[in-house]
Write a structure and sequence with these properties.
Blueprint lengths: L41 H21 L19 E7 L2 H8 L5 E9 L8 H5 L6 E8 L6 H11 L7 E2 L2 E2 L5 E5 L2 H14 L10 E4 L3 E3 L7 H4 L4 H19 L4
């Protein structure tokens, strides 16, 4: 079981940050640059050359490259965002992974799928409230899709262990996708089926409509980034995060 967060110092400053790791190229795009430019006046020739250089830079930056984790030069997100809610064991672990995806605007740790409103962490930890530890992701669908997030979800935890992730045991650690609409439900079911061959054992991930999401206490939010030297972060979260990011950085075959 993980350590009680009350024993960690919530004011610690994050000392470690992954930068410039690429996700698999989940989409391909092809563009063509015209090979011949007709002779024009000197003034027009200068303008055309500048436009052509810009086009070449755009094609080179897009074609065949993987999506990137957030970097200082990442384009800003659009105002139109969508929400995804997943449970994959300890919310500190999966929060740290999804925070590093380009197109993800925010990640909140919380509880969902239980018997009462506004449960406390202590109530959820008993396993009797029925809630799962989950994260709620606000993302820009123009930069990363719901299906892209699902691809990372299968990598971010073991979906074949019932009510358990490593040493964390209990129904609060179950693997679950809480969908927000019918479109997400169908996408989750299709993704689960497509992911099955990746695992030796059957996937036990629950797919259910989201009843309510309750944001967890403040000391749970952004936990890994604020407490990188805490024992659970050092020995559980960081090795898992490194492993997932390494897999994501490999070019898609």
């Amino acid at each position: 079981m993980r350590r009680n967060p009350a024993s960690s110092n919530p004011n610690q400053v994050a000392l470690w940050r992954v930068k410039d790791i690429t996700l698999p190229a989940l989409r391909s795009c092809a563009q063509e640059i015209p090979g011949n430019i007709r002779q024009v006046s000197t003034k027009m020739k200068t303008t055309t050359t500048r436009l052509l250089s810009t086009a070449i830079l755009i094609v080179g930056a897009v074609t065949g490259l993987a999506q990137k984790v957030k970097t200082p030069d990442s384009p800003p997100s659009t105002n139109a965002t969508e929400i995804a809610t997943y449970g994959g064991g300890c919310f500190w672990c999966v929060e740290a992974i999804f925070q590093r995806l380009d197109g993800v605007k925010s990640v909140a740790s919380g509880y969902a799928g239980g018997k009462k409103d506004s449960p406390t962490y202590e109530e959820v930890c008993t396993g009797q409230s029925g809630h799962a530890e989950v994260i709620q992701i606000e993302y820009d669908p123009k930069k990363i899709s719901f299906n892209d997030l699902l691809d990372v979800f299968w990598l971010a935890h073991d979906p074949t262990t019932l009510n358990r992730q490593g040493a964390d045991r209990g129904t609060q650690y179950r693997s679950v996708i809480f969908y927000h609409d019918e479109k997400q439900k169908l996408a989750a079911e299709a993704s689960k089926k497509a992911a099955a061959p990746q695992f030796k054992d059957p996937i036990v991930t629950e797919i259910s409509a989201l009843p309510k999401f309750f944001k967890a206490e403040g000391y749970h939010q952004n936990y890994f980034n604020r407490n990188p030297t805490a024992s659970y972060c050092t020995f559980v979260i960081k090795p898992k995060l490194d492993q997932v990011l390494q897999k994501l950085s490999k070019p898609k075959k």
